[in-house]
Amino acid sequence: MRVLITGGSGFVGQRLCRRLKEAGHRLLVVSREPEQVRDRLPEGSDIRRSVLDFVDTPPDAIVNLAGESIAARRWSDDQKKRLIDSRVNITGDLVMLCEQLQASQGRMPRLMVSASAMGYYGDQGDREVTEQTPPHDEFAHRLCKRWEDTAREAADFGVRVALLRIGLVLDAGGGSLQKMLPPFKLGLGGRFGDGKQFMPWIHREDLVGAILFLLERDDLEGPFNASAPHPVTNAEFTRTLAKQLGRPALMPVPAIALETAFGEMSRLLLTGADMRPTRLLEAGFEFRFPTLEKALSDILG
Ligand SMILES: NC(=O)c1ccc[n+]([C@@H]2O[C@H](COP(=O)([O-])OP(=O)(O)OC[C@H]3O[C@@H](n4cnc5c(N)ncnc54)[C@H](OP(=O)(O)O)[C@@H]3O)[C@@H](O)[C@H]2O)c1
User: What's the whole-number average pLDDT of the chain?
Assistant: First the structure.
């Protein structure tokens, strides 16, 4: 199968590309810097600067992962625009690619798996959250909704669209865990605020597994919560990580300090949702790392 991947050079994309290549698929990757990312991608990857550069090489499936990191910098109005544009514009290009392929009666992609995030639901307190739960209106929700709504437009061209509302992706060598490890290794880790906010998480291997699962299952579409079946609160996450590292975690960070340092972006650390992967489990997806203990012992062990 020819698979077109945006964000293939990223933390999730690199692992996905490796697994797709191992499974014998051909990789078409969109990157803003094709030459700079070449050595992060499997040999033979066809890397081009824009989605629409692939109109002469129609993919059988699309995986859409591109986007400016949500925690790159404080959420000023300009930064909010950058977070939205970096996702919605490239997603719109994918829809345009489908439109152009249909117009030229070319081969059509069967499926688009498009990333979204747990932020879709906004702050949900301690309510259990499935794909049916109404969202709380705030910036993260509005960002994810525009991203998802744009991706859904591909369905107008007969493409099956699956949306992955992704939790915190854990693995070595990148993502949030890499930023958390230094203070925890020094015994300076601690919960954020009162620690009661939920932190849905997923091992990177399971996220890639879920994408491959959706690529193969012709009967699945719509939103899927992509997080492990056993989410934890921030306090539990802190305790489990400290225990794995054999260090104390006695340095709670007061909410006010995070609010002062990060402004509105502190909501990423101080609010959350008890998100459950209801639809993936119903579809028969099996998590290799269902509990945080298992995931962290794999990653840190
Ligand atoms: N990692 C997580 O914990 C997590 C949690 C929830 C949701 N997600 C979502 O899942 C997707 C993949 O996550 P990830 O951790 O692999 O992401 P990542 O490593 O931060 O980046 C993905 C790719 O997006 C492209 N990109 C970055 N900034 C961009 C910009 N300003 N404009 C256009 N493209 C840009 C880059 O590709 P090039 O430089 O090659 O163009 C980058 O390699 C993202 O959309 C993310 O929002 C991730």
Answer: 96
Whole-angstrom distance, CA of residue 220 vs CA of residue 280:
9
Quick check: 87 and 64 in contact, CB under 8 A? Answer: no
Percent of the chain with pLDDT over 70: 100
- DSSP-derived letter for residue 188 is B
Residue range 18-28, pLDDT digits in tens: 999 999 999 99
Q: How many structural domains are present in the chain?
A: 1
- Which among 230, 92, 125, 243 is positioned nearest to 167, based on CA atoms? 230
Question: Among candidates 272, 270, 172, 268, which has minimal Cα distance to 231?
Answer: 272
Name the residue of 4, 6, 11 whose CB sits within 8 Å of the most ligand 1 atoms, as the mutation to test its pocket. Answer: 11
Average pLDDT score over residue span 158-170: 98
Q: Decide: 279 and 224 in contact? Cβ < 8 Å.
A: yes
44 residue type, one letter: G
Each residue of 227-257: b (16+ CB within 10 Å) or e? bbebbbbbbbbbbbbbebbebebeebbeeee
**Does 250 have pLDDT greater than 90?**
no
β-pairing, 46-48 with 61-64?
unpaired
**Closest to 160 in 3D by CA, of 84, 240, 116, 214:** 214
Give the CATH number for residue 267.
3.40.50.720
Say which DSSP state 105 is in.
Answer: T
Pocket of ligand 1, candidates 4, 5, 6, 9: which has the most ligand atoms within 8 Å of its Cβ, to mutate? Answer: 9
CA of 105 to the centre of ligand 1 (A): 32
What is the rounded radius of gyration, in angstroms, for the C-alpha atoms of the chain? 19
Q: What is the pLDDT of residue 301?
A: 87
Residues with CB under 6 A from ligand 1: 7, 9-13, 31-33, 37, 65-70, 86, 115, 117, 166, 168-169, 175-176
Task: Name the residue range of residue 136's domain.
Answer: 2-300
